[in-house]
Amino acid sequence: MNTHIMSNEKIYWFIFYNDQLLIEKKNGKHQIPYTPESPLKREIDIPVLNVPVPGHQAKTFRVTKPISVSEQYEWIGLRSSYDYLPQESYKSAGKAFEILHWDKNSRFCPVCGNLMELKNDITKRCPSCGKELYPAISTAILVLIRKANSILLVHARNFKGTFNSLVAGFLETGENLEECVAREVMEETQLKIKNISYFGSQSWPYPSGLMVGFIADYESGKIELQDDELSSGAFYTRDNLPELPHKLSLARKMIDWWLEQNSDETK
């Protein structure tokens, strides 16, 4: 072990190699390492950053080379860790990953080019011109479109899998979220929608996003897919649904919500 922290107080250690998270196996369960010192050596000049976790000390750092671990530990992809870790640990791991991404991509001042200095856990300040930087979050929308007893599901070309999901897209400068919803649906499917309402939101640390979900109703139009974005899209009833996204996603939570609503209506 090699860490500058010499204390008996236990710390949560969020250690990453690329997008792989170090997880400890203990008593048949998986958990984030919780020890006074890091379970892995930290490479020289690799910073250790604090992770704001209520009621606990938590730290994070990267390793730049694949390191073999003992039977007590294993590397698991951050997304896959959703299936192994308690919900709060998974969310904290996502926060740690976002902080590391921000630190790596905000080394130099965007105004004068000088090296930035860490002011606190989520603030950097340029010692030359005083510019301050905070972690940037990319906001994206999801929209579940209802048409009678069916919903629109699409397969995007950038999906890593064969599942279908909801129309999605990033918020652009100068528009509000509802305008973004209507624009993305029109751009990607040529459909006009109405009754846009907020559903919920979800942190999406891959690497630093916020997903905001909306429900809307079909108004008019014929599906014409934006070919460079979508490979397929159609309205599906609950009885002929295609493969759906993983349960960790807000899109899946929205689809499951619709299935429950639709089930109640058909009884």
From TrEMBL:
<dbReference type="InterPro" id="IPR015797">
    <property type="entry name" value="NUDIX_hydrolase-like_dom_sf"/>
</dbReference>
<dbReference type="GO" id="GO:0035529">
    <property type="term" value="F:NADH pyrophosphatase activity"/>
</dbReference>
<protein>
    <recommendedName>
        <fullName>NAD(+) diphosphatase</fullName>
        <ecNumber>3.6.1.22</ecNumber>
    </recommendedName>
</protein>
<dbReference type="GO" id="GO:0006742">
    <property type="term" value="P:NADP+ catabolic process"/>
</dbReference>
<dbReference type="InterPro" id="IPR015376">
    <property type="entry name" value="Znr_NADH_PPase"/>
</dbReference>
<dbReference type="GO" id="GO:0019677">
    <property type="term" value="P:NAD+ catabolic process"/>
</dbReference>
<keyword id="KW-0479">Metal-binding</keyword>
<dbReference type="InterPro" id="IPR050241">
    <property type="entry name" value="NAD-cap_RNA_hydrolase_NudC"/>
</dbReference>
<keyword id="KW-0520">NAD</keyword>
<dbReference type="InterPro" id="IPR015375">
    <property type="entry name" value="NADH_PPase-like_N"/>
</dbReference>
<feature type="domain" description="Nudix hydrolase">
    <location>
        <begin position="132"/>
        <end position="260"/>
    </location>
</feature>
<dbReference type="GO" id="GO:0005829">
    <property type="term" value="C:cytosol"/>
</dbReference>
<comment type="similarity">
    <text>Belongs to the Nudix hydrolase family. NudC subfamily.</text>
</comment>
<dbReference type="InterPro" id="IPR000086">
    <property type="entry name" value="NUDIX_hydrolase_dom"/>
</dbReference>
<dbReference type="Pfam" id="PF00293">
    <property type="entry name" value="NUDIX"/>
</dbReference>
<dbReference type="GO" id="GO:0046872">
    <property type="term" value="F:metal ion binding"/>
</dbReference>
<dbReference type="InterPro" id="IPR049734">
    <property type="entry name" value="NudC-like_C"/>
</dbReference>
<keyword id="KW-0460">Magnesium</keyword>
<dbReference type="Pfam" id="PF09296">
    <property type="entry name" value="NUDIX-like"/>
</dbReference>
<keyword id="KW-0378">Hydrolase</keyword>
<dbReference type="Pfam" id="PF09297">
    <property type="entry name" value="Zn_ribbon_NUD"/>
</dbReference>
